[in-house]
Amino acid sequence: MTTADRRPRVLSGIQPTSDSFHLGNYLGALRQWVALQETADAFYCVVDLHAITVEHEPKALRERSRVSAAQLLALGLDPDRSTLFVQSQVPEHPMLEWILGCETGFGEASRMTQFKDKSAKQERTTVGLFTYPVLQAADILLYQTDRVPVGEDQRQHLELTRDLAIRFNGAYGRTFNVPEPFIVSETATIKDLTEPEKKMSKSSSGPRGCLYLLDTPNQMRKKIRSAVTDSGSEVRYDPESKAGVSNLLTIYSALTGTPVEKIESEYHGKGYGDFKGDLADLVADSLEPIAKTTKEYLADTAELDRILAKGAEKARSVASRTVAKAYKKVGFYPPVSM
Ligand code: TYM
Question: By three-state DSSP, how is residue 276 classified?
Protein backbone atom coordinates (compact mmCIF):
# COMPACT_ATOMS: atom_id res chain seq x y z
CA MET A 1 0.00 0.00 0.00
CA THR A 2 1.31 3.48 -0.82
CA THR A 3 1.04 6.37 1.62
CA ALA A 4 -1.55 7.97 -0.67
CA ASP A 5 -4.05 5.16 -0.25
CA ARG A 6 -3.36 4.47 3.42
CA ARG A 7 -6.50 5.13 5.47
CA PRO A 8 -5.94 7.88 8.03
CA ARG A 9 -4.68 6.49 11.31
CA VAL A 10 -6.79 7.46 14.31
CA LEU A 11 -5.93 6.95 17.96
CA SER A 12 -7.67 7.94 21.14
CA GLY A 13 -7.83 6.91 24.78
CA ILE A 14 -10.13 7.03 27.78
CA GLN A 15 -9.38 6.56 31.48
CA PRO A 16 -11.00 3.69 33.38
CA THR A 17 -11.48 5.87 36.46
CA SER A 18 -15.17 5.40 37.14
CA ASP A 19 -17.80 2.68 36.97
CA SER A 20 -19.38 4.26 33.89
CA PHE A 21 -18.55 6.72 31.15
CA HIS A 22 -20.65 9.89 31.13
CA LEU A 23 -22.57 11.85 28.54
CA GLY A 24 -19.65 14.27 28.03
CA ASN A 25 -17.32 11.38 27.14
CA TYR A 26 -19.94 9.99 24.79
CA LEU A 27 -20.90 13.15 22.89
CA GLY A 28 -17.47 14.79 23.06
CA ALA A 29 -15.42 11.79 21.98
CA LEU A 30 -16.82 8.26 21.92
CA ARG A 31 -19.43 8.86 19.25
CA GLN A 32 -16.68 10.09 16.97
CA TRP A 33 -14.62 6.98 17.80
CA VAL A 34 -17.42 4.78 16.54
CA ALA A 35 -18.05 6.89 13.42
CA LEU A 36 -14.36 7.06 12.50
CA GLN A 37 -13.93 3.31 12.34
CA GLU A 38 -15.84 3.48 9.01
CA THR A 39 -13.14 5.51 7.29
CA ALA A 40 -10.01 5.24 9.40
CA ASP A 41 -7.57 2.68 10.68
CA ALA A 42 -8.51 3.23 14.29
CA PHE A 43 -6.71 2.37 17.54
CA TYR A 44 -8.62 2.87 20.78
CA CYS A 45 -7.13 2.41 24.16
CA VAL A 46 -8.33 2.11 27.76
CA VAL A 47 -5.57 4.08 29.45
CA ASP A 48 -5.08 2.33 32.77
CA LEU A 49 -1.49 3.61 33.17
CA HIS A 50 -2.92 7.12 33.30
CA ALA A 51 -5.46 6.01 35.90
CA ILE A 52 -2.79 5.39 38.57
CA THR A 53 -1.58 9.01 38.45
CA VAL A 54 -4.13 9.63 41.21
CA GLU A 55 -4.98 7.35 44.12
CA HIS A 56 -6.55 4.09 43.03
CA GLU A 57 -7.64 0.69 44.24
CA PRO A 58 -6.06 -2.18 42.25
CA LYS A 59 -9.09 -4.48 42.18
CA ALA A 60 -11.40 -1.64 41.16
CA LEU A 61 -8.98 -0.53 38.46
CA ARG A 62 -8.88 -3.96 36.77
CA GLU A 63 -12.66 -4.21 36.96
CA ARG A 64 -13.12 -0.70 35.58
CA SER A 65 -10.80 -1.41 32.67
CA ARG A 66 -13.05 -4.34 31.77
CA VAL A 67 -16.24 -2.34 32.22
CA SER A 68 -14.71 0.41 30.07
CA ALA A 69 -13.87 -2.01 27.27
CA ALA A 70 -17.36 -3.55 27.50
CA GLN A 71 -18.94 -0.10 27.21
CA LEU A 72 -16.83 0.72 24.16
CA LEU A 73 -17.97 -2.49 22.47
CA ALA A 74 -21.57 -1.76 23.50
CA LEU A 75 -21.31 1.68 21.90
CA GLY A 76 -20.48 0.00 18.62
CA LEU A 77 -16.70 -0.39 18.40
CA ASP A 78 -16.10 -3.42 16.25
CA PRO A 79 -12.91 -5.27 17.24
CA ASP A 80 -12.60 -6.64 13.72
CA ARG A 81 -12.37 -3.13 12.30
CA SER A 82 -10.82 -1.13 15.14
CA THR A 83 -7.95 -2.12 17.38
CA LEU A 84 -9.25 -2.01 20.95
CA PHE A 85 -6.74 -2.57 23.74
CA VAL A 86 -5.74 -1.84 27.30
CA GLN A 87 -2.65 0.36 27.58
CA SER A 88 -0.88 -1.71 30.26
CA GLN A 89 -0.78 -4.69 27.86
CA VAL A 90 1.43 -2.72 25.48
CA PRO A 91 4.74 -1.98 27.26
CA GLU A 92 5.91 0.22 24.38
CA HIS A 93 3.85 3.10 25.86
CA PRO A 94 6.09 3.74 28.89
CA MET A 95 9.17 2.90 26.78
CA LEU A 96 8.48 5.80 24.44
CA GLU A 97 7.30 8.01 27.28
CA TRP A 98 10.80 7.94 28.80
CA ILE A 99 12.36 9.19 25.59
CA LEU A 100 9.74 11.91 25.11
CA GLY A 101 10.07 12.96 28.76
CA CYS A 102 13.71 13.69 28.07
CA GLU A 103 12.61 16.06 25.28
CA THR A 104 9.99 17.86 27.39
CA GLY A 105 10.89 21.08 29.16
CA PHE A 106 10.06 21.27 32.85
CA GLY A 107 8.39 24.66 32.28
CA GLU A 108 6.45 23.32 29.34
CA ALA A 109 5.03 20.46 31.43
CA SER A 110 4.32 22.87 34.31
CA ARG A 111 2.03 24.92 32.08
CA MET A 112 -0.43 22.05 31.53
CA THR A 113 -3.74 23.29 32.95
CA GLN A 114 -5.08 19.79 33.67
CA PHE A 115 -2.04 19.14 35.87
CA LYS A 116 -2.62 22.38 37.73
CA ASP A 117 -6.32 21.59 38.24
CA LYS A 118 -5.80 17.98 39.26
CA SER A 119 -2.82 18.59 41.52
CA ALA A 120 -4.74 21.33 43.33
CA LYS A 121 -7.33 18.68 44.27
CA GLN A 122 -4.81 16.09 45.52
CA GLU A 123 -3.33 15.86 48.97
CA ARG A 124 -0.20 14.37 47.45
CA THR A 125 0.84 15.10 43.86
CA THR A 126 3.01 12.52 42.12
CA VAL A 127 5.64 12.79 39.41
CA GLY A 128 3.34 10.48 37.40
CA LEU A 129 0.60 13.10 37.41
CA PHE A 130 3.13 15.68 36.27
CA THR A 131 4.35 13.55 33.35
CA TYR A 132 0.83 12.38 32.45
CA PRO A 133 0.74 14.47 29.22
CA VAL A 134 4.07 12.96 28.10
CA LEU A 135 2.60 9.46 28.39
CA GLN A 136 -0.39 10.71 26.40
CA ALA A 137 1.99 11.99 23.71
CA ALA A 138 3.63 8.54 23.62
CA ASP A 139 0.18 6.89 23.24
CA ILE A 140 -0.43 9.00 20.17
CA LEU A 141 2.99 9.09 18.53
CA LEU A 142 3.56 5.32 18.83
CA TYR A 143 0.88 4.71 16.18
CA GLN A 144 1.97 7.31 13.59
CA THR A 145 -1.41 8.89 14.23
CA ASP A 146 -3.06 11.36 11.84
CA ARG A 147 -6.11 12.33 13.93
CA VAL A 148 -7.04 12.22 17.58
CA PRO A 149 -10.78 12.40 18.35
CA VAL A 150 -11.19 14.09 21.76
CA GLY A 151 -13.14 16.75 23.62
CA GLU A 152 -11.93 20.33 24.01
CA ASP A 153 -10.28 19.65 27.39
CA GLN A 154 -7.56 17.61 25.64
CA ARG A 155 -6.50 20.35 23.20
CA GLN A 156 -3.51 21.52 25.23
CA HIS A 157 -2.19 17.95 25.60
CA LEU A 158 -2.44 17.53 21.84
CA GLU A 159 -0.51 20.74 21.27
CA LEU A 160 2.26 19.37 23.49
CA THR A 161 2.17 16.10 21.53
CA ARG A 162 2.58 17.98 18.26
CA ASP A 163 5.42 20.10 19.68
CA LEU A 164 7.24 16.98 20.89
CA ALA A 165 6.83 15.22 17.54
CA ILE A 166 8.13 18.25 15.63
CA ARG A 167 11.02 18.74 18.08
CA PHE A 168 12.09 15.09 17.99
CA ASN A 169 11.82 14.91 14.19
CA GLY A 170 13.89 18.09 13.93
CA ALA A 171 16.61 16.76 16.24
CA TYR A 172 16.85 13.16 15.01
CA GLY A 173 15.22 13.01 11.58
CA ARG A 174 11.66 12.09 10.71
CA THR A 175 10.39 9.54 13.22
CA PHE A 176 6.81 10.50 14.13
CA ASN A 177 3.78 11.59 12.20
CA VAL A 178 2.55 14.97 13.50
CA PRO A 179 -1.09 14.41 14.58
CA GLU A 180 -4.07 16.75 14.34
CA PRO A 181 -6.78 17.03 16.97
CA PHE A 182 -10.25 15.99 15.79
CA ILE A 183 -12.67 18.02 17.92
CA VAL A 184 -16.33 18.41 16.96
CA SER A 185 -17.06 21.99 17.94
CA GLU A 186 -20.77 21.57 18.77
CA THR A 187 -20.12 18.90 21.40
CA ALA A 188 -16.54 19.82 22.35
CA THR A 189 -17.57 20.56 25.94
CA ILE A 190 -20.75 19.12 27.40
CA LYS A 191 -21.56 21.03 30.56
CA ASP A 192 -22.46 19.88 34.04
CA LEU A 193 -26.25 19.65 34.41
CA THR A 194 -26.40 21.50 37.71
CA GLU A 195 -23.46 23.90 37.27
CA PRO A 196 -23.50 24.65 33.53
CA GLU A 197 -20.51 26.97 33.77
CA LYS A 198 -18.34 23.84 34.43
CA LYS A 199 -17.70 20.90 32.11
CA MET A 200 -19.44 17.61 32.91
CA SER A 201 -16.86 15.52 34.72
CA LYS A 202 -16.75 12.40 36.86
CA SER A 203 -14.42 14.05 39.36
CA SER A 204 -15.85 17.52 39.78
CA SER A 205 -19.56 17.17 39.07
CA GLY A 206 -22.01 16.51 41.90
CA PRO A 207 -24.30 13.45 41.79
CA ARG A 208 -26.95 15.22 39.69
CA GLY A 209 -24.61 17.12 37.43
CA CYS A 210 -23.07 14.14 35.65
CA LEU A 211 -25.21 11.78 33.60
CA TYR A 212 -23.66 8.32 33.33
CA LEU A 213 -24.24 5.98 30.41
CA LEU A 214 -24.92 3.14 32.86
CA ASP A 215 -27.44 5.12 34.93
CA THR A 216 -30.91 3.59 34.96
CA PRO A 217 -33.45 5.27 32.65
CA ASN A 218 -35.15 6.66 35.75
CA GLN A 219 -31.95 8.22 37.06
CA MET A 220 -31.32 9.73 33.62
CA ARG A 221 -34.84 11.21 33.45
CA LYS A 222 -34.48 12.67 36.95
CA LYS A 223 -31.12 14.24 36.15
CA ILE A 224 -32.40 15.89 32.97
CA ARG A 225 -35.61 17.09 34.60
CA SER A 226 -33.70 18.61 37.49
CA ALA A 227 -31.04 20.19 35.25
CA VAL A 228 -30.49 23.84 36.04
CA THR A 229 -32.17 26.13 33.58
CA ASP A 230 -31.97 29.87 33.64
CA SER A 231 -34.36 32.62 34.59
CA GLY A 232 -36.87 33.25 31.84
CA SER A 233 -38.72 30.48 30.06
CA GLU A 234 -37.67 30.70 26.43
CA VAL A 235 -35.95 27.68 24.88
CA ARG A 236 -33.18 29.57 23.13
CA TYR A 237 -29.49 28.84 22.42
CA ASP A 238 -27.38 31.51 24.08
CA PRO A 239 -24.40 30.02 25.91
CA GLU A 240 -23.46 33.38 27.47
CA SER A 241 -26.70 34.20 29.23
CA LYS A 242 -28.55 30.86 29.06
CA ALA A 243 -25.79 28.31 29.69
CA GLY A 244 -28.08 25.62 31.15
CA VAL A 245 -30.69 25.60 28.38
CA SER A 246 -28.01 25.92 25.72
CA ASN A 247 -26.28 22.80 27.05
CA LEU A 248 -29.58 20.89 26.94
CA LEU A 249 -30.18 22.10 23.37
CA THR A 250 -26.70 20.86 22.42
CA ILE A 251 -27.50 17.43 23.90
CA TYR A 252 -30.89 17.29 22.15
CA SER A 253 -29.39 18.30 18.84
CA ALA A 254 -26.49 15.82 19.10
CA LEU A 255 -28.78 12.90 19.93
CA THR A 256 -31.32 13.60 17.19
CA GLY A 257 -29.19 15.23 14.48
CA THR A 258 -31.72 18.11 14.44
CA PRO A 259 -30.18 21.59 14.05
CA VAL A 260 -30.50 23.75 17.17
CA GLU A 261 -32.56 26.44 15.34
CA LYS A 262 -35.15 23.86 14.39
CA ILE A 263 -35.48 22.67 18.00
CA GLU A 264 -35.81 26.30 19.15
CA SER A 265 -38.69 26.85 16.74
CA GLU A 266 -40.39 23.57 17.73
CA TYR A 267 -40.42 24.75 21.36
CA HIS A 268 -41.36 28.32 20.57
CA GLY A 269 -44.07 29.40 23.02
CA LYS A 270 -43.62 26.29 25.18
CA GLY A 271 -41.76 26.36 28.50
CA TYR A 272 -38.67 24.65 29.87
CA GLY A 273 -40.84 21.92 31.42
CA ASP A 274 -42.04 20.52 28.08
CA PHE A 275 -38.57 20.68 26.61
CA LYS A 276 -36.91 18.98 29.56
CA GLY A 277 -39.60 16.29 29.70
CA ASP A 278 -39.04 15.42 26.03
CA LEU A 279 -35.27 15.53 26.40
CA ALA A 280 -35.47 13.28 29.48
CA ASP A 281 -37.28 10.62 27.41
CA LEU A 282 -34.94 11.08 24.47
CA VAL A 283 -31.81 10.63 26.60
CA ALA A 284 -33.21 7.63 28.47
CA ASP A 285 -34.41 5.93 25.28
CA SER A 286 -31.17 6.60 23.37
CA LEU A 287 -28.82 5.45 26.12
CA GLU A 288 -30.76 2.59 27.72
CA PRO A 289 -29.55 -0.10 25.27
CA ILE A 290 -25.90 0.66 26.13
CA ALA A 291 -26.23 -0.65 29.70
CA LYS A 292 -27.91 -3.83 28.53
CA THR A 293 -25.26 -4.61 25.90
CA THR A 294 -22.45 -3.71 28.32
CA LYS A 295 -23.83 -6.30 30.74
CA GLU A 296 -23.88 -8.90 27.98
CA TYR A 297 -20.20 -8.31 27.22
CA LEU A 298 -19.39 -8.48 30.93
CA ALA A 299 -21.17 -11.82 31.25
CA ASP A 300 -18.33 -13.44 29.29
CA THR A 301 -15.12 -11.95 30.64
CA ALA A 302 -12.99 -14.69 29.06
CA GLU A 303 -14.19 -13.63 25.60
CA LEU A 304 -13.80 -9.94 26.49
CA ASP A 305 -10.21 -10.50 27.67
CA ARG A 306 -9.50 -12.48 24.51
CA ILE A 307 -10.69 -9.53 22.36
CA LEU A 308 -8.45 -7.20 24.37
CA ALA A 309 -5.42 -9.49 24.15
CA LYS A 310 -5.86 -9.71 20.39
CA GLY A 311 -6.12 -5.92 20.22
CA ALA A 312 -2.98 -5.53 22.33
CA GLU A 313 -1.06 -7.87 20.04
CA LYS A 314 -2.07 -5.85 17.01
CA ALA A 315 -1.25 -2.58 18.78
CA ARG A 316 2.19 -3.94 19.78
CA SER A 317 3.02 -4.88 16.22
CA VAL A 318 2.68 -1.20 15.25
CA ALA A 319 4.01 0.34 18.48
CA SER A 320 7.14 -1.83 18.58
CA ARG A 321 8.21 -0.60 15.14
CA THR A 322 8.01 3.02 16.30
CA VAL A 323 9.89 2.25 19.51
CA ALA A 324 12.63 0.44 17.58
CA LYS A 325 12.99 3.49 15.34
CA ALA A 326 13.10 5.95 18.25
CA TYR A 327 15.59 3.75 20.19
CA LYS A 328 17.91 3.70 17.21
CA LYS A 329 17.63 7.46 16.70
CA VAL A 330 18.58 8.32 20.29
CA GLY A 331 21.46 5.83 20.38
CA PHE A 332 20.01 3.00 22.50
CA TYR A 333 20.64 -0.68 22.04
CA PRO A 334 17.64 -2.19 20.23
CA PRO A 335 14.92 -3.62 22.50
CA VAL A 336 15.11 -7.42 22.79
CA SER A 337 11.81 -8.85 21.60
CA MET A 338 9.64 -10.28 24.38
P1 TYM B 1 -10.86 11.26 29.75
O2 TYM B 1 -10.79 9.83 30.17
O3 TYM B 1 -10.98 12.29 30.82
O4 TYM B 1 -12.05 11.51 28.75
C5 TYM B 1 -12.25 10.71 27.59
C6 TYM B 1 -12.72 11.59 26.45
O7 TYM B 1 -13.93 12.28 26.79
C8 TYM B 1 -13.79 13.67 26.51
N9 TYM B 1 -14.60 14.43 27.49
C10 TYM B 1 -15.50 15.35 27.15
N11 TYM B 1 -15.91 15.83 25.96
C12 TYM B 1 -16.89 16.78 25.97
N13 TYM B 1 -17.46 17.26 27.11
C14 TYM B 1 -17.08 16.81 28.33
N15 TYM B 1 -17.64 17.29 29.44
C16 TYM B 1 -16.05 15.82 28.39
N17 TYM B 1 -15.43 15.18 29.41
C18 TYM B 1 -14.54 14.33 28.83
C19 TYM B 1 -12.31 13.94 26.68
O20 TYM B 1 -11.92 15.12 26.00
C21 TYM B 1 -11.70 12.68 26.09
O22 TYM B 1 -11.60 12.79 24.69
N23 TYM B 1 -6.08 12.38 28.85
C24 TYM B 1 -7.25 11.71 28.30
C25 TYM B 1 -7.04 10.23 27.99
C26 TYM B 1 -5.92 9.91 27.06
C27 TYM B 1 -5.89 10.16 25.65
C28 TYM B 1 -4.67 9.59 25.19
C29 TYM B 1 -6.77 10.78 24.78
C30 TYM B 1 -4.76 9.25 27.37
N31 TYM B 1 -4.02 9.06 26.27
C32 TYM B 1 -4.30 9.65 23.86
C33 TYM B 1 -6.39 10.84 23.42
C34 TYM B 1 -5.19 10.29 22.99
C35 TYM B 1 -8.36 11.81 29.31
O36 TYM B 1 -8.13 11.95 30.48
O37 TYM B 1 -9.61 11.60 28.81
Answer: helix
From first to last of its 338 residues, the chain has per-residue pLDDT tens of 445 568 999 999 999 999 999 999 999 999 999 999 999 999 999 999 999 999 999 999 999 999 999 999 999 999 999 999 999 999 999 999 999 999 999 999 999 999 999 999 888 899 999 999 999 999 999 999 999 999 999 999 999 999 999 999 999 999 999 999 999 999 999 999 999 999 999 887 788 999 999 999 999 999 999 999 988 889 999 999 999 999 999 999 999 999 999 999 999 999 899 999 999 999 999 999 999 999 999 999 999 999 999 999 999 999 999 999 999 999 999 988 75
| 328 part of the active site | no
CA of 13 to the centre of ligand 1 (A): 7
Q: Is 289 exposed, middle or buried (0-12, 13-18, 19+ CB in 10 A)?
A: exposed
Among protein residues, the one whose CA lies closest to atom 9 of ligand 1: 25
Q: Which atom of ligand 1 is nearest to the CA of 14?
A: 2
Q: Could you identify the atom of ligand 1 that is nearest to the CA of residue 133?
A: 23
**Nearest residue to 223 via CA among 151, 281, 270, 267:** 281
Q: With 0.90 as the threshold, say if the pTM is over it.
A: yes
